[in-house]
Amino acid sequence: MAKKQTPSDSSKIKLQPLGDRVVVERDESDTVTAGGIVLPDSAKDKPTRGKVISVGDGRLLDDGSRSPLQVKAGDRILFTSYAGDNFKLGTRELLLLSESDILAVIK
Known about the structure:
The chain is an all-beta fold. The protein has no helices and eight strands.
């Protein structure tokens, strides 16, 4: 019988995206404005920055070879606000997006 995963076990799970997909952990949204106003959850914008957790093996080209991705695990990136699909892995909220949704690498 398979062992049931608990939230504490989620750190052991390795998630390997396919093709030109990238798994990103989105940055936390600001809770206070520059003027000191505390924002409720409903007023917070989705952050468009995050850290790459894992990457796929690249886009499949017409000749059957793979084009490697321009980002790697650990990169900090900027992406479009409505890009990708949100999902939970244990207690972590992650984002699965295509490489084409990535706008820039933050250095």
